Structure to design on (564 residues):
């Protein structure tokens, strides 16, 4: 580490000790690395706080990069336990806005022109200021009202510097922290690295906005802002300004609440099961209420994408949960996940059965989706099943949506309202008239299997009757043993041949008195010939022999690289 990194490590260590994580810093060897141990007092209030709360306070004190780390982790219920997710969801950016002169400088550097050549006016006071960017209301040269999102100068370099320190700390922690989840500390940092660099590139967000605009073009109850491509870049994003009221601040009549709640629910269903593209953070601050009970979505930095197989799996999972089919829920989660090792499927199913019995003891309309999803994800982490991040993001989005629906219309029966959408979805997905329907594909596969099955069974019975039926058992260990024995045999054979040539050469040329400097020339020539023949055969064995030698050579090179 360079001196600057060591100073940052010392700062992190002191702040970590102040929040009650000094023992962890000691075990990781940070004080030893720094050459001394700091005496840091821990307040009684901090000692009484939970580990999750102290972790959240630690990230808040460490600055923008660590706050962003906590915000990213709060969307990943597959990485951390539920209590940590709940605490990290409370993290907010508390940053001083950058002056308007720096905003103009960033626009000039990013778009290649002075701000006054691109905008007729930019408000001095920002609409919002966060650790990565701040947003200003502006007017284009054509007189259109827009919002300009400008990245903070130097934030990318600062994050990259902190990421280097985080990786070093993660490697140290891996040696002292008992691994309880499916991700190691370095794995979590790698996930954060990918997420933060996607967010730092505003062109990704611009692509997300365009995709949402296209998907919702024929849905009049939902409005998506337009992207101004000529006023956007990797560090500047210009969008249409939308006048509206945040949905949680609007004064609404009961009938309006019903209509808006149905719009929220329909938009969610369409995003999940038709578009395959959903808003990853649909909290009330990101939804505006427009005239005519229309809705507008904001902030497309975090979105989730579902493929067609993932959508079908999601449908089956919802049905299995609704039917309290713990066996199907266990198998679906096991299939979509990536187990680190062979999981105890029986224990996994039994635990799921207990969770479903606990949460589905009442009617479906009274189910606490937040607790149910959290417990299922925690259970997957317990059994070391790595659930794809899209499902974890969907879990967070579903919780936010459900909370918003209950606040808008507490008496709403979500299952009753969602039933028509579910029927429409299933009818479209399994309609035999649709060649792309899941039912048609399933029937075609079953028909093909049913047609081939009698022939294959007859072949097996005939082979057994004639004594031609054989069973081949393959195992990696047996393959390696067989290869090692074959290699040893070839080497032994080549060695015997070489010895035979050498001895034969001396016997054959011993009677010949042709000497040079006291050395029998013909004997030496025979030895050289034997060595050349041995080398040629061995070279053929390495690089020929139906490719077996190439495999051995590549394995040898890999072993040498690992040793280095």
């Amino acid at each position: 580490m360079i001196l600057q990194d060591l100073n940052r490590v010392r700062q992190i260590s002191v702040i970590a000790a102040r929040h009650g994580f000094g023992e962890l810093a000691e075990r990781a060897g940070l004080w030893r690395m720094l050459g001394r141990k700091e005496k840091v007092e821990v307040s009684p209030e901090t000692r009484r706080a939970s580990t999750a709360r102290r972790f959240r306070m630690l990230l808040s004190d460490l600055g923008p990069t660590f706050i962003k780390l906590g915000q990213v982790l709060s969307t990943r219920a597959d990485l951390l336990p539920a209590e940590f997710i709940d605490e990290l969801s409370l993290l907010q950016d508390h940053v001083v806005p950058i002056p308007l002169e720096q905003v103009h400088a960033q626009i000039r550097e990013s778009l290649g022109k002075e701000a006054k050549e691109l905008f007729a006016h930019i408000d001095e006071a920002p609409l919002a200021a966060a650790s990565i960017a701040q947003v200003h209301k502006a007017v284009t040269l054509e007189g259109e009202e827009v919002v300009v999102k400008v990245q903070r100068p130097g934030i990318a370099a600062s994050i990259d510097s902190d990421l280097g320190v985080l990786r070093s700390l993660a490697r140290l922690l891996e040696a002292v922290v008992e691994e309880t989840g499916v991700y190691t500390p370095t794995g979590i940092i790698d996930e954060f690295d990918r997420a933060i660099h996607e967010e730092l590139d505003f062109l990704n967000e611009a692509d997300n906005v365009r995709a949402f605009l296209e998907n919702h073009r024929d849905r009049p109850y939902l409005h998506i802002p337009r992207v101004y491509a000529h006023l956007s870049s990797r560090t500047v994003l210009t969008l249409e300004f939308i006048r509206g009221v945040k949905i949680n601040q609007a004064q609404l009549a009961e009938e309006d609440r019903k209509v808006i709640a149905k719009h929220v629910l329909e938009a969610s269903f369409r995003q999940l099961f038709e578009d395959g593209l959903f808003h990853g953070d649909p909290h009330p601050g990101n939804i505006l209420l427009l005239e005519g009970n229309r809705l507008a979505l904001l902030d497309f930095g975090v979105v989730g994408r579902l493929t067609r197989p993932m959508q079908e799996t999601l449908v089956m999972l919802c049905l299995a949960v609704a039917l309290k089919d713990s066996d199907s829920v266990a198998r679906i989660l096991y299939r979509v996940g990536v187990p680190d090792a062979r999981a105890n499927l029986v224990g996994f199913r039994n635990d799921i059965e207990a969770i479903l019995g606990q949460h589905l003891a009442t009617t479906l309309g009274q189910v606490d989706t937040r607790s149910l999803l959290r417990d299922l994800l925690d259970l997957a982490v317990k059994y070391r099943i790595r659930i794809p991040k899209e499902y974890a993001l969907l879990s967070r989005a579903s919780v936010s949506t459900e909370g918003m629906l209950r606040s808008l219309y507490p008496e709403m029966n979500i299952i009753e309202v969602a039933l028509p959408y579910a029927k429409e979805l299933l009818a479209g997905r399994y309609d035999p008239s649709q060649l792309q329907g899941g039912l048609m594909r399933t029937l075609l596969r079953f028909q093909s299997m049913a047609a081939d099955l009698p022939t294959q069974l007859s072949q097996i019975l005939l082979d057994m009757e004639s004594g031609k039926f054989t069973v081949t058992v393959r195992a990696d260990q047996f393959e390696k043993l067989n290869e090692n024995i074959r290699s040893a045999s070839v080497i032994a054979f080549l060695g015997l041949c070489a010895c035979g040539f050498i001895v034969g050469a001396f016997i054959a040329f011993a009677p010949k008195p042709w000497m040079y400097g006291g050395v029998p020339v013909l004997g030496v020539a025979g030895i050289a010939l034997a060595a050349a023949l041995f080398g040629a055969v061995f070279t053929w064995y390495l690089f020929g022999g139906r490719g077996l030698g190439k495999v051995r050579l590549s394995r040898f090179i890999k072993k040498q690289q690992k040793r280095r």
Summary: The first helix runs from residue 3 to 18. Residues 545-554 have pLDDT under 50 and may be disordered. The radius of gyration is 33 Å.
